[in-house]
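Figure caption, in words: inputs first, then the predicted bound structure.
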Amino acid sequence: MVQPVPPEPARLWRNPEPKPAYDVVVIGGGGHGLATAYYLAKNHGITNVAVLERAWLAGGNMARNTTIIRSNYLWDESAAIYEHSLRLWEGLQAELDFDLQFSQRGVVNLAHNLADVREGMRRVHANRLNGVDAEWLEPADVRRVCPIVDVSPDKRYPVLGATYQPRGGIANHDSVAWAYARAADALGVDLVQGCEVTGIDVAGGRATGVRTSRGRIAAQSVAIVAAGHASLVAAMAGVRLPLQSHPLQALVSDLLEEVHPCVIMSNTVHVYVSQAAKGSLVMGAGIDAYNSYAQRGSFHVIERQMAAALELFPIFARAQVIRTWAGIVDVSPDASPILGRTPVDGLYLNCGWGTGGFKATPGAGWVLAATIAAAEPHPLARPFALARFTTGALIDEHGAAAVAH
Ligand SMILES: Cc1cc2nc3c(=O)[nH]c(=O)nc-3n(C[C@H](O)[C@H](O)[C@H](O)COP(=O)(O)OP(=O)(O)OC[C@H]3O[C@@H](n4cnc5c(N)ncnc54)[C@H](O)[C@@H]3O)c2cc1C
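Bound structure (flavin-adenine dinucleotide present):
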C-alpha cells in the first residue's frame, strides 16, 4: 500500500536562493541582523534586503545568551538607546504577534562592597534623571524582592544593597529571533542561511557587494552585524575594529518549580541568574580572559561562578547543571557598542555589544535601519560612532556592563 505523503510542515520563513543583487545586504543572521532587516522593511519600505547567515539563523550569541533585558546604564547616551530598546520590547509581542515570553519581573544588581554601593547609588540617580525606572534597595528590600537570596552579613559576599529596575526582565531568545525572521520574511526580506561572506568588494571608497560561499552578491549598502566575528568581517573591507573576541559561558539547571521571581546580577562575583518560563535556572559567568572563536570556555570560570552562586542562593545546592555552553562576544574598549557608518561609504556597523546586546536587539535594529535608510547616523547612534576611538569621546560603561548583562 502506498503511504500518503505527509503535508509539508508550516514554515516561519522561506528558504530562498540568494539573488545577484540587493539594495541592502546584512551580514549576520542573529537577532540584530534580523531586527535590522525587519525595521528596514517596516519603517522605511526597503524590502529588497538579504540577511546572509553563514550557519543557521540565530545560532550564534542570539541562541546562547541569558536573555536579561534592562536599560539602567550610567551614561545619557547609553540610557537613551537601551531605554528606546526597552520601550520597543514593551510592545513587541503584540507587534510581531508572537509569544516572546517577555516577562518584566525586575532586575536586581547586588552591591557587595562600598565601591559597589557608591557606583550603584550613582547609577540610580543618573537613571532617574534619564527617566529610567530605578530604585535603591537595602538588604531587607532585596530579601523582599527575592526571598531566596542570602543577605546575612557574615557571608563571603555580603549583600550591602542593590539597584533595582522593576521594568527589566527576560524573554525567550529563540522566539524573538523567529518572530523577527517571520515578520521580515513576510515583508519580502530574503533570509539566506548557509551563506558565508568571504569578502567585501570596495570600489572607489564605496562598498559594492559581497563575495560569499554561494557566489557574489551586489549591494548598494552592506551592514556588518556579525557580533563576535565583526572584526574579521570588517577586515575584509580593510576596516580595523578595536574589538576583542572572548568566550562567554552560561549554563542551565534541570527543571524546577518556580523558586526565583526576578533577575539577580552581581558584577563583583560575576554571577547572574533568572528562572526561565519552563523552570530551568539560567546562569551566566564572566568572560574567559583569552581571545577565542571556539564557542567553548574554561571550566574554572564556571566553577568559580557556581561557588559564588551557591553562597548567594543556598537553595541551589540541590539543583543539577544539565548543560553549559559559550558564545563569542565582541568587547570594545569602553564596553559600549559601535553603531553607524565606517570610513567606507555604504558600509555600516553594528557590533561591540559584548556581553549585553540581547536587550538591545529591537533598539539596535531600529537605529541601524534608520541609519542605513538615511545614509546618516540616527541621533541615538551618533555617540556610538567608530570615530570615538580616535576622538576620545568614549562612553565608559564598565560599571554597568563590564561583565553582567
Ligand atoms: C553566554 C552569553 C550570555 C549573554 N547574556 C546576555 C544577557 O543576559 N543579556 C544581554 O542583553 N545580552 C547577553 N549576551 C550578549 C548577546 O547575546 C549579544 O550581544 C547579541 O546576541 C549580539 O547580537 P546578535 O544576536 O546579532 O549576535 P549573533 O547571534 O552572534 O549573530 C551574529 C551572526 O553573524 C554570523 N556570521 C559571522 N560571520 C559571518 C560571515 N562571515 N558570514 C555570514 N554570517 C556570519 C554568525 O554565524 C551569527 O549567527 C550574552 C552573550 C553570551 C554569549
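The mean pLDDT is 95.
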